[in-house]
Amino acid sequence: MTGKYALGLLLCLISVLSWGGMFPIMEPALKVMDPFYFTLFRYGSVAIIFALILFITEGAHAFKTEGHVFKLWVFGTAAFAGFSFLVFLGQQLAGASGSIIASVMMAIQPLLGVLVAWIYRGIKPTLASLVSMIVAAIGVFMVVTKGDFSVLFSGQNTLLAVTLILLGALCWVIYTAGGADFPEWSILRYSTLTALLGVCSVIIALTIATILGWLHFPSLNQIVEVHTALIYMVTFAGVIAVFTWNLGNRIITPINGILFMNLVPITSFIIKIVNGYQVSLFEVAGCIITITALVGNNLYNRYKAKQSDTTELTSTH
């Protein structure tokens, strides 16, 4: 293993550990502030930081959208409004187990990516990927219900919470897939412009909701109470995680980096257990099943890719 490859592994590890920790950290914060204004404070800060870094490193010309403003706005709104709004609202509705449910749903993003690639780019999934999706869904179902299937329909908002989190995860997958439409742009430029436009959508949505009386601007005391979570979400789970993830994947390639997403629910589990959460056997089994499905799908795709490369090499000779 070369030093550069080891660095790539370390960078991916830093990012997924940061993301795994954000759900337990957000749990107490969501009892103080709604996820909508928290999103504004979080991603508003991230967008400003990105913009400053982009201006310093690439100059003012990097802020030109080159005729892609609508596409960038759609992707940015999906990531910086849709993801945070839906995932953390779902976590809030799910209660004590919300952080674990959300983290497991984040781990199935690679499989959601298969569906997005199929719909958006016409790349049909393999049979192995489809089977993996079904198995992973069974694992998620076990985590959500903890063996009591009636909770989905018992009025505890579990079904609604899971639906919101799933849609939020899908929003981030759509945003990630959109990056491939700008191959000549740096990762920083795509991240910055989508963040700025996405935050504009957040501001518009919050302004309308506040005027209509659906939301209320947080008090100074509320902001002070969540300042620790906000600092973590802006720095570690925001700027640092995004940069280390993108750079790490560039070094070790996405097919290897995506395996690190399996550490997100494991990190959340550990943090919750340390804080006194009683994890059920069904939750552990569901998490293992979901991760096994993801790893199996990844290994199969790597095997097929290697087999295809071998076939092409043989045919050229």
The biggest sheet, with number of strands, parallel, antiparallel or mixed sense and barrel status, is: none
> Helical percent range?
over 70%
Number of E-state strands: 0
- CA-CA gap between termini: 30 Å
Low-confidence blocks of residues: none
Structural class: mainly alpha
Number of helices: 13
What average pLDDT do the residues reach? 85
Order of helices and strands: HHHHHHHHHHHHH
Strand content: under 5%
Described by the principal axes of the CA atoms, the overall outline is globular
The value of Rg in angstroms is: 20 Å
Describe this structure in words.
- The protein is built from 13 helices and no strands.
- Helix 1 (3-29) runs antiparallel to helix 10 and helix 2 packs antiparallel against helix 3 (69-94).
- The chain has helices at 3-29, 35-58, 69-94, 98-107, 109-121, 127-145, 158-178, 187-211, 220-225, 227-252, 254-257, 263-274, 281-316.
- 79% of the residues lie in helices and 0% in strands.
- The mean pLDDT is 85.
- 40% of the residues are buried.
- The protein is an all-alpha fold.
- The two termini are 30 Å apart.
Short description:
The protein has 13 helices and no strands. It has 317 residues and is mostly helical.
Give the helices and strands, then pairings.
Layout: H1 3-29, H2 35-58, H3 69-94, H4 98-107, H5 109-121, H6 127-145, H7 158-178, H8 187-211, H9 220-225, H10 227-252, H11 254-257, H12 263-274, H13 281-316
Helix pairs in contact: 1-4, 1-10, 1-12, 2-3, 2-8, 2-10, 3-4, 3-7, 3-8, 4-7, 4-12, 5-7, 6-13
Based on the model shown, name its key terms.
mainly alpha; single chain; globular; 0% strand; 317 residues
